[in-house]
Amino acid sequence: MKIFRKLRRTLIASGKIKSYLIYAFGEIVLIVIGILIAWKINSLNEIRKNKIVEHKIYQSLNEELDSNLKILDSSIYRYSENVKIISNTIRNVGLQPEEITTQLKKDIVLLNYKLTQLHDGAINSINSTNKFEFIESAVLKHLIASYPNELDNFNSQEAKIENIITNRLKPEIELHVSLLDIVSNRDIGFKTANSFSTQSNYVALLNSRGYQNAMVDRLIQTEIQLANSISLRDKTKTIASKLNVELGI
Predict the structure, then answer these.
(1) For the chain, what is the radius of gyration of the CA atoms?
(2) Cβ(227)–Cβ(80) below 8 Å
(3) How far apart are CA 108 and CA 99, in angstroms?
(4) Do the Cβ atoms of 213 and 146 come closer than 8 Å?
(5) How many C-alpha atoms does 23 have within 13 Å on its Cβ side?
(6) Which among 24, 121, 172, 206 could disulfide-bond with 211, CB atoms 3.0 to 4.6 Å apart, if both were Cys?
(7) How does DSSP classify residue 200?
(8) Tens place of pLDDT for every residue, the chain, 249 residues?
(9) Which helix (H) or strand (E) holds 18?
(10) Within 10 A of 172 (CB to CB), how many other CB atoms are there?
(11) Among 107, 113, 114, residue whose Cα is nearest residue 182
């Protein structure tokens, strides 16, 4: 810098204005080039950092979606089986006492319910924070933005089924059937206790309007949830597939 200042003073002192102007212009160009290089380096560093963040977001989301796919596969099988069992139970309405076998008694009181809980931590984190800005794919952004609504619909339908079982089916079953019947085969002590309990009335349970309505409602809601599960699994697969492309898998 001292050399440049000395040269500038020399040119001014010698009266070589034209040479000085050329020199001054060159010095400005050098400064501008320096600024542009620094800006470019900083820009490249920001891009590199954003790519790292984006990759971590994709990895976290990919793991969550993979887990949800496994849960949905299991749920689809369970819902399909429940539809069959519930349908068969409804067909048994009107049977006479001598027609109700031991296996049928088990099916009548079989709830076979397990709450399906899908993971949503990564997807909600992306949608509720500035992580969404790091995703470059417009298609992926749209899919990720709409996914929480799909999860909410699924969870809402799951809550309907749980409510039917907890608040409608269980009370009807307990009203007509001794729970000792259900566990009497486990232990001789249970069998002895069952012999002194109030006898269960499976015919009355089957003919109970509350039980019938609850079973029909459960069948309808389970069929809806089965369709929801298949649809959600397809959408989850689509997002996972797009993510794999972005991750280069």
Answers:
(1) 35
(2) no
(3) 13
(4) no
(5) 15
(6) 172
(7) P
(8) 455 555 555 645 555 555 545 656 666 777 777 777 767 766 666 666 666 666 677 788 888 999 999 999 999 999 999 999 999 989 988 888 888 888 888 888 888 788 899 998 888 888 777 666 767 778 888 888 889 999 999 999 999 999 999 999 999 998 988 866 665 555 544 444 444 456 788 899 999 999 999 999 999 999 999 999 999 999 999 988 887 777 665
(9) helix 17-91
(10) 20
(11) 107
Tokens of 94: 């009107």
Return d(Cα 86, Cα 109) in angstroms, integer. Answer: 10
Crossing angle of helices 17-91 and 2-14, in 10° steps, is 140
Instruction: Round to whole Å and give the CA distance between 138 and 132.
Output: 11
Tokens of 129: 């924070």
Specify the residue for token string 């929480």: 148
Cβ neighbour number for residue 29 with a 10 Å cutoff: 10
Contact 241, 109 (CB under 8 A): no
Residue that the structure tokens 């102007």 belong to: 21
Taking the chain, what is the end-to-end CA distance rounded to the nearest angstrom? 52
Q: Residue holding tokens 């006898």? A: 199
